[in-house]
Design brief:
- This protein is α+β, with helices and mostly antiparallel strands.
- It folds into three domains: 99 residues, Nuclear Transport Factor 2, Chain: A; 130 residues, Nuclear Transport Factor 2, Chain: A, CATH 3.10.450.350; 118 residues, Glucose Permease (Domain IIA), CATH 2.70.70.
- The protein is 17% helix and 39% strand.
- The chain is built from seven helices and 25 strands.
- Strands 12, 15, 17, 18, 19, 21, 23 and 24 form an eight-stranded antiparallel beta sheet that branches.
- Helix 4 packs antiparallel against helix 5.
- The structure holds zinc ion (ZN).
- Zinc ion binds next to loops.
C-alpha cells in the first residue's frame, strides 16, 4: 500500500510568503534554530540520535526555504540534506515539529554537443554555463585520457547526462550516461553500465578513484541509501554508508591511501577514523573496537594497511563496520568505487552492456550529425512541495540502530 500526501504550497494560494535563502558557511543547525527563535528542545534535543545526525548533513550554500504567514511567523522550513531527503520543520499547535521527508524533483535527460577550441572543460563551460556539467565530463575521462596534448582545434564532444531539477532549477550533480570525445579525430567513449560503473567501448572498466574493501570477506548487512522509509519507526531515514558485518576484532584496512584526519570517539559513530584522500575524497570507519597501535591523527596510511578492528562502539546493534565515502563533504555510495576483481565484462554481462552501448551510440551519432545545440532549461515553477511515500525496508542484523 502506498500513501501519497501531496501538499503544494503556492505563495499565491495563502496569505503566506516563501523566503529563499542559502545555508551560511559554518552555520550549525542549532545556531540556525536560535537565530530564528525556534524551540531547541523540540527540534533538536528531543530527537533521536539518527535525526540529530541528519542535522549535521546540511551543507553550506544549499538552497533552503521558509514559509511565513501574515504576521511574519515561521510556518514551515525546508532544509535539503542531499538530493533526496530534506528536513521539514512545521508549526503545529503553537509549537514546532521536525521530520525528514523526500525532496520532490524531476530528472531530465539532457544533451550537449560542442566543438572544442582549447579544452573540453572550457568548451562545456562556455556552452552550458555549468561548472558541474563540465566537471562531470572531465572527471569521467580523467584517468584514461590526457586532454592536454592530444586535442585538435575543431574536435567534437557529445555528452548524454541526467540533471535533477527542484523548483525549476537544476540542483545536485548531473549523472553522466554516455560521452564521446574526439582527440585528433580519434573518438573515445565512456558509458554508464547498469551496474553503476563506467566502461569504455571495449567493455573494460574505466579506472577511477578505486577503493579496496575495508574488511576482507565480510558480508554487507546494510547498503547505502540517501532516503528510505522505516516501516516500524514510521519515518524517513538515510543510511549514508555501507555496513559490513564481521566478527569483533576483524582487521579494518584503509580503503585508499591518505592522511588520517580523525582518530577518536565521536558520538553515535563510536570509535571513528577519517582518512583524507586525493581529489576531495574522504573515507570514514565507524563503531571500531579499537585503533591499531601506531595509528593516530596526522599519520599517512597506505591502501590496504590495517588501521583498526571491527567493534560495536557508539550506536550499533552488533559488531560491524560502518563505512562512508564522502566527496567534498557529500556522502556518496562507496560501492560504486570499491574495487572488484572483474574489470572486463564477459558473457551475459558483456552482451547486456553491448546492447546498452549500441543504444547510446545511436543517440551520440545522431547528435553529432545534427550538431544538436544545447538547450538551457527554463524556470517553470515556483512552489515548494512536500510529499510522503510508503516504502518497505528490511531490518537486518549488524547495522546501525
Ligand atoms: Zn551503517
Amino acid at each position: 500500500m502506498r500513501i501519497f500526501i501531496f501538499l503544494a504550497i503556492a505563495a499565491t494560494l495563502f496569505a503566506s510568503h516563501v523566503e529563499r535563502f542559502r545555508w551560511f558557511n559554518g552555520e550549525t543547525y542549532l545556531q540556525f534554530l536560535e537565530k530564528h527563535s525556534l524551540p531547541l528542545r523540540r527540534l533538536y534535543y528531543n530527537l533521536d540520535k539518527d535525526d540529530q545526525r541528519l542535522t549535521e548533513e546540511i551543507r553550506a550554500g544549499v538552497h533552503c526555504q521558509m514559509l511565513r504567514d501574515d504576521n511574519n511567523t515561521i510556518e514551515q522550513v525546508l532544509l535539503p540534506l542531499n538530493d533526496e531527503l530534506q528536513i521539514h520543520i512545521y508549526q503545529d499547535d503553537e509549537s514546532y515539529s521536525f521530520e525528514a521527508i523526500p525532496i520532490i524533483s524531476s530528472t531530465k535527460n539532457e544533451v550537449l554537443y560542442t566543438q572544442i577550441n582549447s579544452s573540453p572543460n572550457y568548451a562545456i563551460l562556455k556552452a552550458t554555463g555549468s561548472q558541474k556539467v563540465a566537471g562531470v565530463f572531465v572527471a569521467a575521462f580523467k584517468h584514461s585520457l590526457n586532454f592536454k596534448n592530444d586535442i585538435r582545434k575543431g574536435d567534437e564532444l557529445v555528452m548524454l547526462y541526467k540533471q535533477k531539477y527542484r523548483l525549476g532549477r537544476p540542483f545536485s550533480m548531473p549523472t553522466l550516461d554516455a560521452a564521446m570525445i574526439e582527440m585528433g579525430k580519434k573518438k573515445h567513449f565512456i558509458y554508464l553500465n547498469d551496474d553503476g560503473r563506467y566502461y569504455d567501448e571495449r567493455a573494460h572498466e574505466v579506472e577511477g578513484f578505486l577503493l579496496a574493501r575495508p574488511v576482507r570477506g565480510a558480508r554487507i548487512s546494510s547498503y547505502f541509501t540517501k532516503r528510505r522509509w522505516h516501516p516500524i519507526l514510521h519515518k524517513w531515514k538515510a543510511h549514508l554508508g555501507v555496513d559490513y558485518a564481521a566478527r569483533r576484532g576483524t582487521p579494518v584496512v584503509a580503503a585508499g591511501s591518505g592522511r588520517i584526519t580523525y582518530c577518536a570517539r565521536m558520538g553515535t559513530y563510536g570509535n571513528l577514523i577519517k582518512i583524507r584522500h586525493n581529489d576531495g575524497y574522504e573515507t570514514r570507519y565507524a563503531h571500531l573496537k579499537s585503533f591499531r597501535r601506531g595509528i593516530y591523527r596526522g599519520k599517512y596510511v597506505k591502501k590496504g594497511q590495517t588501521i583498526a578492528y571491527v567493534g560495536s562502539t557508539g550506536r550499533s546493534t552488533g559488531p560491524h563496520l560502518h563505512f562512508e565515502l564522502r566527496k567534498r563533504g557529500r556522502a556518496i555510495n562507496p560501492l560504486r568505487v570499491v574495487q572488484v576483481t572483474t574489470k572486463k565484462l564477459k558473457g551475459k554481462a558483456k552482451k547486456a552492456f553491448l546492447k546498452l552501448k549500441a543504444n547510446y551510440d545511436e543517440r551520440i551519432n545522431l547528435h553529432l550529425q545534427n550538431k544538436t545545440p544545447y538547450k538551457r532549461a527554463t524556470h517553470f515553477e515556483d512552489m515548494c512541495y512536500i510529499y510522503l511515500l510508503d516504502d518497505p525496508m528490511e531490518q537486518k542484523d549488524g547495522q546501525d540502530r
